[in-house]
Amino acid sequence: MSVSRPAVHPVEAPPLTDAAENPPRVRMKEIQGMPGTPGGLALRLSQFVFAAAALGVMVSASDFASVTAFCYLVAATILQGLWSISLAFLDIYALLVKRCLRNPRALCLFTLGDGITATLTFAAACASSGITVLIGNDLNICSQNHCTSFETATTMAFISWFAVCPSFLMNFWSLACR
């Protein structure tokens, strides 16, 4: 009796994903100015320094509290300074432990915070600028007021806003690319 015996044919395992066919997902390059980069830290520190300078110069004038726009500038620069220094500490931490800060939730928080503080700082600087022009040019009472201090504080607030804009735009762009 001739019984056929089953033949064992080896089965090849399917190949694992080939890097040529399915390249691994590549993250966006570290663009300077984004959270967790040295450029981002430099932007945060410059935001803080100029907001602190605006605050210091404005508070040094004794009669700033008599004008609402100047009080608004003080409040906006305090908020800008606190936001910027807290994110600067976060950037320092991320740089020390080599951590990426591009988590979608974190990016959303950074974008919202930068947008809010940028808007408040810009509005306060514009309002203070208008009052400074009113006092200096229209009313001609600079001799009775601290016009130079008001102008310097307003300028520092505008420079702080200029430093916030790249941070906001980078975060917003990175958030929109997801």
From TrEMBL:
The keyword Transmembrane helix applies. Homodimer and heterodimers. It is found in: Cell membrane. The keyword Transmembrane helix applies. Residues 1-22 are annotated as: Disordered. It holds the Pfam family CASP_dom. It comes from Ensete ventricosum. The lineage of its organism: Eukaryota, Viridiplantae, Streptophyta, Embryophyta, Tracheophyta. The chain crosses the membrane at residues 41-61, 67-95, 107-135, 155-176. GO terms for cellular component: plasma membrane. Belongs to the Casparian strip membrane proteins (CASP) family. Keywords: Cell membrane, Membrane, Transmembrane, Transmembrane helix. This is CASP-like protein. It is a multi-pass membrane protein. Residues 36-163 form the Casparian strip membrane protein domain.
